[in-house]
Structures are given as C-alpha cells and as structure tokens.
Amino acid sequence: MNKAKVSLVRCPNYDGQAVRSAILRHFELHGGIESFISKGDSVLIKPNMIAPRPSQCAAQTDPAVIIELAKILLDFGAKPFVGDSPAWSNTRACAESLGIVEPLNKLGVRIRQLGRPVNRVLEHSGAKIGISSIALDADKIINLPKLKTHQQLVATIAVKNMFGCVSGKAKAIWHYKKGATFDDFCTMLIDIYKLLNPVITIIDAIVAMEGPGPIRGNPKKLGWLVASVDPIAAEVICCDLIGISPGQLPIIKTAEILGFGCTDKQNIQVVGDSFAVGERIVLAPAELTPLRFSSARIIKSIFRQIFILVKTGRKQ
C-alpha cells in the first residue's frame, strides 16, 4: 500500500522570497509542479477569504502566499486567477483588505467572485447544491486554506476551504439543511471537495488562528507551510503540529467512515523538514457553538451581508 505523502516546510515569516522558496520546495517534494499543472492551464487559486480582515488578523490566507503562488504559476506558463465566495462581503473587498488587488493587477492575475452557480448532486449526501461554474470551469484548482480553530468544527485545515465554491449566502442555508449532525455536514463538505478535486492543498500555517475562529480568533505563529494531495492526511499531520487529536475533528471522523483520504498516521509519509513533538504549539481552542444555523441566524446573516455590501460599495 502506497503511503499518503504530506510535506512539511519551515517558513518563519511572510517574506516573499521565503514563501516562494517554501512553495517551490513543496512542489519538488511532490514530484514537481509539472505533475499537477500543464502550461496554459487555467488555475483557480482558492484561498480562504472569509471576511474583509487585514492579514495581521490571521482570518484569511496571507497575501504573500497568494501572490507568490500566482507568480510561480505564471513563471511556469499557467494562467492563474484568484477566486472565492466569502461568507461576508465579497471577494474584491476581502482582497482589498489583504492588499493584494494592486500586486495581482500588475501580474495580470484576475480576482473573481465565485458566482454563477450550477446545481450538482453530491455523491454521498445526495444534496443538490449550487457550485460556482467559475470554479468548475477551471482546468485545475489549488486549495490554499488557512489553519484556524473553529467554533463549530474545532479546527478547519484543508477540506472546508472548498465550501467557499458554494456561491453567496447559500452556505448559511446549507449550515441549516445539513447542520443537524456533524456526519451530515462533513459528508457534504467532503463531497464538495471530491467534486472540485483540487490537484494539491497548500496550507498556510505560518501564522494560524487560535481561540474563537474562524473570524474573531487571535494570530498564533507556527512557522509552517504544509502540503498534500490528500487533504485528510494533511489534516492529520496538522493536528500533530497544534496538539489536537485527529479524533477530535468531525471532518476526519467522517472521512474515516466514508473511506476518504488517509486517517491513519501510520500510513502517512511525512517529507521535507522534520518535526519533533517538543516543537508542538498548542492552539487555544474555540468555545464551541451549534453547527446548525437557526432560521433567525440565517435571516440576520443575510441582512448583515446586504449592509456590508452596501457599505463596501459606497467606499469604492
């Protein structure tokens, strides 16, 4: 049985050259960028863009990671674009809060709102869900999440980031429809990940979020970029980095039931920089709140989104 491969690369800060070198090393450890991308490919860079928060809040994928990956893809001959459908506001406002609009414009890299949903029936959950056709039409997707503690799911590491390809406030509605149990909700998340099938996941764990994530937590320096073709194997190894048992994460427990990814650490090959247990940096946990959104919360969320969008529009 071939082991799932997870690469660990130390990256002490968000200096552009350090980040670039770390990303290039990840590709080398997984067989080279040409193993994932062909020249001329349209490549969706899918960061975590959840709300208009500056990079120092650690709520979103850091700008250096987004920009350096875009440069690497351009140098290779691909056609990258950055896209998401944030829970709050829109992709443009989130990108502006990160300061990446002008640098990406100079590179000729578009920032796109992941709208234009088309219905897809998910494999295991059976849900018919609107997935952005912009994401579906990309030749390749690179998943670029931020490692964060999470008030509903304990921590979000790799898989949940692809939920951002569900357009607009439909995400809140699916919290209601599939939020009755962790198994139902996590099955939906895994189905979405499998449908979109990112070629690789590169996790921004240089500075993570601890406490009341995914938006209001506090930054915590870890100093790692983590990558894998297998997002569950990546989540298992990241649990090691932050002092969480993989069994605590609903997404890993559901993945084991579905037979998705590698949940057994004994069957994971860790390559790159070595990690000693004594280096573990435990993140302060989030106080858990109900996974299922109430109808009142959804209505409140929709009105708050309208207010944010109007406010953002006035500033532009």
In words, what does this structure look like?
- By secondary structure, the chain is α/β, with parallel strands linked by helices.
- The protein has one domain (4-315): LarA, N-terminal domain (Rossmann fold, 3-Layer(aba) Sandwich).
- It has helices at 16-29, 63-76, 91-98, 101-107, 133-137, 170-178, 182-196, 231-242, 250-258, 295-315, and strands spanning 4-10, 42-47, 79-84, 111-113, 117-121, 128-132, 140-144, 146-150, 154-156, 200-210, 218-228, 268-272.
- A hairpin with a 3-residue loop joins strand 8 and strand 9 (154-156).
- The longest helix is centred in the C-terminal third of the chain and has 21 residues, at 295-315.
- The protein is globular.
- The model has no long low-confidence stretch (mean pLDDT 93).
Q: Number of DSSP strands?
A: 12
Q: What is the domain tally? A: 1
* Biggest sheet features: 10 strands, mixed
CATH class: Alpha Beta
Q: Round the mean pLDDT to the nearest integer and report it.
A: 93
CATH architecture field: 3-Layer(aba) Sandwich
Q: Any low-confidence stretches, pLDDT <50, length ≥5?
A: none
CATH topology-level fold name:
Rossmann fold
- Provide the succession of SSEs: EHEHEHHEEEHEEEHHEEHHEH
How is the quaternary structure best described? Answer: single chain
Principal-axes geometry comes out as globular
Distance from first to last alpha carbon: 54 Å
Spell out the CATH superfamily. LarA, N-terminal domain
Compute the gyration radius: what is it?
18 Å
Structural class computed from helices and strand pairing? alpha/beta
Count of DSSP-assigned helices = 10
Approximately how much beta-strand content do the residues carry?
Answer: 15-25%
Estimate the helix proportion, in percent. Answer: 25-40%
